[in-house]
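Researcher: Quick one. three chains, 679 residues in total.
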Amino acid sequence: MTRVLGWLAALALLAGLGMAFAVAPREATQGTVQRIMYVHVPSVWVAYCAFVVVFVASIAYLATRAEAADRLAHASAEVGVLFTGLTIATGSIWGKPTWGTWWTWDARLTSVAVLFVMYVGYLLLRGMIDEGERAARYAAVLGVVAALNIPLVHFSVLWWRTLHQPPSLMKPGPSSMPPVIVRALLVNFAAFALLYLYFVAKRVRLLRLEAEAGA
Amino acid sequence: MTADPLVRVTGLRKAFGAHRVLDGLALEVRAGEAVALLGANGAGKTTLLKILATLMRPTRGTVLVAGHDCAREPERVRPHVGLIGHGSHVYEDLTALENLKFWTALAGLRAAPAELAGALAAVELDRLAGERVRTFSAGMKRRLSLARFVLARPRVLLLDEPFAGLDQRAKKWLEEHLEAFKARGGAMVMATHSFGRELAVADRIAILSGGAIVLDTPRASLGPDAIARLYRLHTEEGA
Amino acid sequence: MIFARRAWSVVWKDLLVERRSKETLNALAFFSLLLLFVFQFALGPDRERLAAALPGLLWLGFVLAGLLGLGRTFVLERENDCWEGLILAPGDKSAIYVGKLAANVTLMLVVEGLILLLFAVFFNVDLAPALTGLALVMILGTVGLAAVGTLFAAMTAQVRARELLFPVLLLPVQVPVLLGTVKATEAVLLGEPLGAVGHWLGLLAAADVIYIVTGLLTFDFLLES
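Model:
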């Protein structure tokens, strides 16, 4: 099952790459570097999905104490942090030639950075508690708080950046995108989502084996 | 009339990772009964008491205290259980009376000043009611803990080496109070190291070894030497 | 109401111990004074630059003092071996959360008031006209800080390296509160009407509600063993 996922993810990634480089149109002002958007945007979408999964799995764990829910939350947080890091890195790489700077306090980039730090904290907490049951319980509470904080972070950062300033220069806004670009984004999103599922499945399996071995 | 036992443990397993501290443990204690739990250091006596007190969850097995499941409904067990363990549960900067007032209020009990004073008098701390606990000895702190239970009236008392560090007078006093507790219908599990005088209040002795109770027998006819012999016998075999 | 009485017993106990030992309040008061010196040294003697940065500096001071004070929420229980006692106490654990939260908010507001006073004196700023607005923002912000801080303090109380982990966990979560309070304080100090920052106040209030409700619902799980 996991192996099938892995192959599907690989295929989808290839398709996504193809769409990003061959099919999607070349952007007029930014040139080829703009194609990094096809990694940057799907990454952040998958990251948000990952953290929603952490939220749901955390609540499920607190309600049922099922270890499987805890393992899912743990794995999803790890992969989520991975994709968040990817988002920030690609955002930075995109920004350097485009605006001449590695970092900008753009609303989305800032929100994602806060997200990154919150969930790295989640992983740190897990790492610092030895007793499995307590780690699961505390992490679940943190998972709930962090997820509920996401909309608050989103709005506060957005207002912080845009109320007295022109809106972000980073192009794909939600409106008026030609369909071919949307298609390319969706294909890449599907590819990254499959990759996420593959990573999470492998990680959950590893966690289960570790628990059974009494690590 | 035989009511249900106040403490009923069956098939208890407690594992920390791969290490099983308790495995296949069974124990029953009825109202008005006191069981002395004997075992080596690290045998799991404190672990068992903590599970009975709902401070730890069992890995497997059933633990029923006062008719409620410790793992599934710990909040329903807690009003009926009192634990006197290694921790003192007292705030050093507060006086004896203030400590009692706080813990009683936190437990949701309404206690008039006269009742609080009465509880302190019952444990012979009334003259020290206004003294900060920082100045108290171990025995006095233990008496203060018991004062809480004078008001809270738990049905099950769990004691972890309660006589350790007490002088003769304090030991005698504690013994009398524990007998009174039993007489009121309470059940008691007492973890202890010694085989002597302290066991006088126990009706049964249970030897914990290898994660389970390997011997559970009435104490009445056994003197300290006999108990010591049984202990050596069963812990060498069981471990 | 039993819940209120139990929560009150926690507040009473914490404030009584604090009044006797004066550990936390004294240290935080002195810390506030030191903060002022440090800000001055770090930013230079240019009065105008400091005045322009005042809202940010103020809340930086509040947050730093808050990190120290909130991190100590359960140190009493740890030092006196009373953590087990809290767990064993029958009844709804969220009463303990409410009690600790109320005690924390009280303590923090006292320290923040002191910091405010010191700032007004040292930077020669007239805060009188903005006082009611400031008070509102301070209350909203402090409740937000303390609501999550109390929860996280319980979470880190029994964990290794708790002094490091506590700020690491709290600061990212407090970003909305920090942004909201600084922006609102800016407006208040500039003499703008509160309506102009209504959306920020709304965000702070929403955050407070979300954090407190989450704390009430999840505190039980932290005090299980």
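Chain C has a mean pLDDT of 90.
Researcher: Thanks, that's what I needed.
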